[in-house]
Amino acid sequence: MCRHLARLGEPRTLQEVVDAPRYSLMTQSWSPRLQRHGTVNVDGFGAGWYVEGRDEPVRYRRNQPIWTDASFASLAPTIASSCMVAALRSATPGFAHDESSAAPFTHGRYLFSHNGRLEDYPTARKALWAEASTTRDALAAVDSALLFGLAVASWESGASLPDGLVAAARAVLDHGGGRLTMLAADGVSVAGVVVGEPMHLLETDTGTVVASEPHDDGPWRELADLTVVHVTAYGTTETAL
Ligand code: GLN
Predict the structure, then answer these.
(1) How does pLDDT run across 47-103, given as a tens digit for each residue?
(2) How is domain 3-240 classified at the CATH fold level?
(3) What is the rounded distance in angstroms from the CA atom of residue 16 to the CA atom of residue 53?
(4) Which residues have C-beta atoms less than 6 Å from ligand 1?
């Protein structure tokens, strides 16, 4: 299934984060090392990042493999940010590979990405639709959009970045469950929830990366299943879901 990452730290360009590492997302598009579901990630990709003086992120998405987008390759070395989310999509069968289904989703200052699959999307959707936000990206025709809508609704009612993801995960776990690993960012922090799809953490002096798989030979470690991770300028906390 999809591959994604979120990074908080000293500013780095999209090219440095998404393309330059030895096992970068760019490489993971055709040659992921730890992917358990699906083989390649070619059904779209996206990146979101924050710029000075603007609360809302910039978000760029395409419905094609990341390596086929010459425009992304051209702009990626010119865009530096201290907070970003990037994702590759391997579409779950049954969902279209249009741009609106590619992560990251965004609303206000939030970015969101889901890796996995809702076990019983029709039932979960019927049960949880009324609780979910109907912001544009939550209306995309893909299971991930329901999780996003639930997270947005929770954030809008005051939940912290990780708590919004936790609320979305719990709601779906109560309605069929599934593989629900998620990442989110708000410009000053990054959060993740690990449910059924792996997530790895790299902490260095210059930044912290949470990602589906290690993208270099650094001191990454795998987060346990059912972990909630929250990365801020003050450090990283890990709690149980
Ligand atoms: N189910 C989501 C989709 O279809 C995520 C897929 C994935 O993690 N590969 O886009």
Answers:
(1) 999 999 999 999 999 999 999 999 999 999 999 999 999 999 999 999 988 999 999
(2) Glutamine Phosphoribosylpyrophosphate, subunit 1, domain 1 (3.60.20)
(3) 23
(4) 1-2, 89-92, 95, 101, 114-117, 142-144
